[in-house]
Description:
Elements: E1 3-7, H1 18-22, H2 33-47, H3 68-71, H4 74-77, H5 82-85, H6 91-104, E2 109-114, E3 120-127, E4 147-155, H7 163-176, E5 181-187, H8 195-201, H9 205-211, H10 228-240, E6 269-270, H11 271-276, E7 280-283, E8 290-294, H12 300-346
Parallel strand pairs: 4-5, 5-6
Antiparallel strand pairs: 1-2, 2-3, 3-4, 5-8, 7-8
Amino acid sequence: xxxxxxxxxxxxxxxxxxxxxxxxxxxxxxxxxxxxxxxxxxxxxxxxxxxxxxxxxxxxxxxxxxxxxxxxxxxxxxxxxxxxxxxxxxxxxxxxxxxxxxxxxxxxxxxxxxxxxxxxxxxxxxxxxxxxxxxxxxxxxxxxxxxxxxxxxxxxxxxxxxxxxxxxxxxxxxxxxxxxxxxxxxxxxxxxxxxxxxxxxxxxxxxxxxxxxxxxxxxxxxxxxxxxxxxxxxxxxxxxxxxxxxxxxxxxxxxxxxxxxxxxxxxxxxxxxxxxxxxxxxxxxxxxxxxxxxxxxxxxxxxxxxxxxxxxxxxxxxxxxxxxxxxxxxxxxxxxxxxxxxxxxxx
Length: 347
């Protein structure tokens, strides 16, 4: 299956895979516990059918207008976005984010397209860190001021081998635009005890797990001696351990991220992939390291060679056409001379 890579434009938005088209994990400021509480309160009031508004004796007509909730839309009274309830899904916000970046900054995505069907089978998004609200909430933030943030590279099932091609397209685009470096937040998969995981986190995976558990001195060797506080602490640690999506639509949580703690694992690039692609760890973390790829140290040769080859091909084509034209002109001159000699001889 042949796959081609092209720049993302607004006309191609409707062709994006559903997740890439709707998920705004990176593009929208994460919800805070406070806003979640407001949403819960508003929902409770709505479910009660705002019964308090029907009893004017408790407030007096001068303090409470019973027609208030009949004339004012509920969303105006409690401005909670419906998308906040649906998590990270908001096709409108995603399209607005892409549109704004295309107009103000330029290309912000690359698409991998299956040649025979024309289906988009992979996406890569990147932007200045100031246009990515979620980036400020990672434990290894902030992104360097001279770097562009690569937020996501996501492939459809069966096309994972085309991910390096998407990354190459991002690199080529940013080199031509004079960007100095690319940075990305990687995700270390739970249970990864390899040497790579140790390099990404800055310490062994076992040490990182122990760091999130109660100190050994506080845990009695005999479980019968455990206090209620110890049991609660161990249970809390188990519940906070991040895990994969269980397929039920529930997103995993991780205490390392602020806000609600929710995150979208499909929108965070695998740290091992970044490491294998030449990125270096500049901020270690057992779960979300930040990696960087310098674009001004030897990576520009590819774009320069491609540009030079294009110029050589164009020059060769022009030279060939000029030679062909000269040969045709010379041939026509010989024909004219031959005809002139023939006319002279006959006369």
